[in-house]
Amino acid sequence: MSDRRRFFYAIRNKQTGYYLPGYGSRKGHGGFTSDKPEREYPPRLFWRLQDAKLALWHWLKGRVQVWYDHEGEENWTHTCKHDRKAYEMEIVEIRISTSKVVEQVHRL
Protein backbone atom coordinates (compact mmCIF):
# COMPACT_ATOMS: atom_id res chain seq x y z
CA MET A 1 0.00 0.00 0.00
CA SER A 2 1.47 3.35 -0.94
CA ASP A 3 1.73 6.24 1.48
CA ARG A 4 -0.82 8.13 -0.62
CA ARG A 5 -3.49 5.44 -0.27
CA ARG A 6 -4.46 4.60 3.29
CA PHE A 7 -8.21 4.32 3.13
CA PHE A 8 -10.91 1.97 1.91
CA TYR A 9 -14.70 1.93 1.85
CA ALA A 10 -16.98 -0.31 3.90
CA ILE A 11 -20.74 -0.80 4.24
CA ARG A 12 -22.18 -0.21 7.71
CA ASN A 13 -25.58 -0.40 9.38
CA LYS A 14 -26.32 3.06 10.79
CA GLN A 15 -28.20 1.82 13.88
CA THR A 16 -25.95 -1.01 15.04
CA GLY A 17 -22.62 0.22 13.69
CA TYR A 18 -21.98 -3.32 12.38
CA TYR A 19 -20.33 -3.81 8.99
CA LEU A 20 -21.09 -6.19 6.18
CA PRO A 21 -18.36 -8.77 6.76
CA GLY A 22 -15.37 -9.62 4.63
CA TYR A 23 -14.72 -12.81 2.73
CA GLY A 24 -13.48 -14.86 5.69
CA SER A 25 -16.86 -14.87 7.41
CA ARG A 26 -18.91 -17.01 5.10
CA LYS A 27 -18.87 -20.44 6.76
CA GLY A 28 -19.89 -22.05 3.44
CA HIS A 29 -23.44 -20.65 3.31
CA GLY A 30 -23.20 -18.65 0.12
CA GLY A 31 -21.71 -15.41 -1.07
CA PHE A 32 -21.59 -11.82 0.04
CA THR A 33 -25.32 -11.16 -0.50
CA SER A 34 -26.17 -13.89 2.03
CA ASP A 35 -24.37 -12.05 4.82
CA LYS A 36 -25.80 -9.54 7.25
CA PRO A 37 -23.97 -6.83 9.19
CA GLU A 38 -22.12 -8.50 12.05
CA ARG A 39 -19.87 -7.50 14.91
CA GLU A 40 -17.78 -10.69 15.00
CA TYR A 41 -16.04 -10.32 11.64
CA PRO A 42 -13.86 -7.65 10.06
CA PRO A 43 -15.59 -5.53 7.42
CA ARG A 44 -15.43 -6.17 3.72
CA LEU A 45 -13.24 -3.43 2.28
CA PHE A 46 -13.45 -1.84 -1.15
CA TRP A 47 -10.76 0.11 -2.98
CA ARG A 48 -13.23 2.24 -4.90
CA LEU A 49 -16.41 4.00 -3.82
CA GLN A 50 -18.24 2.77 -6.93
CA ASP A 51 -17.45 -0.85 -5.97
CA ALA A 52 -18.93 -0.33 -2.50
CA LYS A 53 -22.03 1.28 -4.03
CA LEU A 54 -22.50 -1.62 -6.44
CA ALA A 55 -22.05 -4.18 -3.66
CA LEU A 56 -24.61 -2.36 -1.49
CA TRP A 57 -27.03 -2.21 -4.41
CA HIS A 58 -26.77 -5.99 -4.92
CA TRP A 59 -27.04 -6.66 -1.18
CA LEU A 60 -30.18 -4.52 -0.91
CA LYS A 61 -31.81 -6.40 -3.80
CA GLY A 62 -31.48 -9.66 -1.88
CA ARG A 63 -29.56 -12.87 -2.01
CA VAL A 64 -27.97 -13.39 -5.40
CA GLN A 65 -27.64 -16.88 -6.79
CA VAL A 66 -25.55 -17.48 -9.89
CA TRP A 67 -26.15 -20.62 -11.90
CA TYR A 68 -25.24 -21.92 -15.33
CA ASP A 69 -27.67 -23.41 -17.79
CA HIS A 70 -27.02 -26.44 -20.01
CA GLU A 71 -25.34 -24.19 -22.61
CA GLY A 72 -22.93 -22.75 -20.05
CA GLU A 73 -24.64 -19.36 -19.89
CA GLU A 74 -24.40 -17.53 -16.58
CA ASN A 75 -27.74 -16.62 -14.98
CA TRP A 76 -28.40 -14.49 -11.90
CA THR A 77 -31.48 -14.59 -9.70
CA HIS A 78 -32.27 -12.46 -6.66
CA THR A 79 -34.22 -13.72 -3.66
CA CYS A 80 -35.78 -10.59 -2.22
CA LYS A 81 -34.94 -9.69 1.40
CA HIS A 82 -37.67 -7.27 2.50
CA ASP A 83 -35.93 -6.48 5.78
CA ARG A 84 -33.02 -4.76 3.97
CA LYS A 85 -33.54 -1.02 3.79
CA ALA A 86 -31.26 1.45 2.01
CA TYR A 87 -31.89 4.17 4.62
CA GLU A 88 -30.47 1.88 7.33
CA MET A 89 -27.13 1.48 5.55
CA GLU A 90 -24.25 3.78 4.72
CA ILE A 91 -20.90 3.64 3.00
CA VAL A 92 -18.09 4.86 5.20
CA GLU A 93 -14.42 5.54 4.67
CA ILE A 94 -12.05 3.34 6.65
CA ARG A 95 -8.66 4.93 7.23
CA ILE A 96 -5.64 2.75 7.84
CA SER A 97 -2.82 3.98 10.04
CA THR A 98 0.36 2.20 10.92
CA SER A 99 2.60 2.47 13.93
CA LYS A 100 5.57 0.55 15.17
CA VAL A 101 4.56 -1.91 17.88
CA VAL A 102 7.95 -3.34 18.82
CA GLU A 103 10.93 -1.03 19.14
CA GLN A 104 13.56 -3.72 19.11
CA VAL A 105 13.52 -7.42 18.37
CA HIS A 106 15.32 -9.47 21.02
CA ARG A 107 16.83 -12.83 20.27
CA LEU A 108 15.51 -15.67 22.35
Could you characterize the architecture of this molecule?
This protein is α+β, with helices and mostly antiparallel strands and 108 residues long. The protein has one domain (7-95). It has one helix and four strands. The chain has one helix spanning 49-61; strands at residues 7-13, 63-68, 74-79, 89-95. The strands form two sheets. The protein has a two-stranded antiparallel sheet with strand order 1-4. The longest helix has 13 residues, at 49-61. The radius of gyration is 18 Å and the shape is extended. The two termini are 31 Å apart. The mean pLDDT is 83.
Concise structural overview:
The protein has 108 residues and is α+β, with helices and mostly antiparallel strands. It has one helix and four strands. Strands 1-4 form a two-stranded antiparallel sheet. It has a two-stranded antiparallel ribbon with strand order 2-3.
Produce the secondary structure layout.
Blueprint: E1 7-13, H1 49-61, E2 63-68, E3 74-79, E4 89-95
Give the strand tally: 4
Task: Classify the secondary structure makeup into a structural class.
Answer: alpha+beta
- Distance from first to last alpha carbon: 31 Å
Number of domains: 1
Give the SSE string: EHEEE
Strand line-up across the major sheet: 1-4
Annotation field: number of helices: 1
Q: Give the low-confidence spans.
A: none
Beta percentage is 15-25%
Estimated helix fraction: 10-25%
Quaternary state of this entry equals: single chain
**Largest sheet geometry:** 2 strands, antiparallel
The shape, in one word, is extended
Gyration radius (Cα, Å) is 18 Å
Mean pLDDT: 83
